[in-house]
User: What shape does this take?
Amino acid sequence: MGSGQAARQVGGAALTGVSKAQELNEQHQITAKMADAGGKAVAQAKAINEQHGITSRLSTAAGAVVSKGKEIEEKHNVTSKLAGGLAKGLDGVSSLMGRSSTSSTPGSTGAGYSAAPGAK
Assistant: This one.
């Protein structure tokens, strides 16, 4: 048997399988039952949410987390400290790679590279 004939037989078997699946679906209304079950699950989830206020509680909690994060940032200047530490770390990496750190030199980019002549 050649590969073309084998491919035709496989294709024919696949079509037969699809046809049988469609026939079973028509007889037993499988897709309609699945859609109905899915709809009921969504309705039940909505009812539970309304009863227990899950999404509003999550929203309130998320707002509290954001508020606390802002409060910590204002009190401790976390982002400024992180940026300063990162700059020092990059200068250290540049030094290890054989470049001298120039972050404190006027006209420096802060990553161990000098700005182009005349650039500000």
The chain has a mean pLDDT of 84. The helical segments are 3-28, 30-52, 54-76, 78-96. The longest helix spans residues 3-28. The two ends are 77 Å apart (CA to CA).
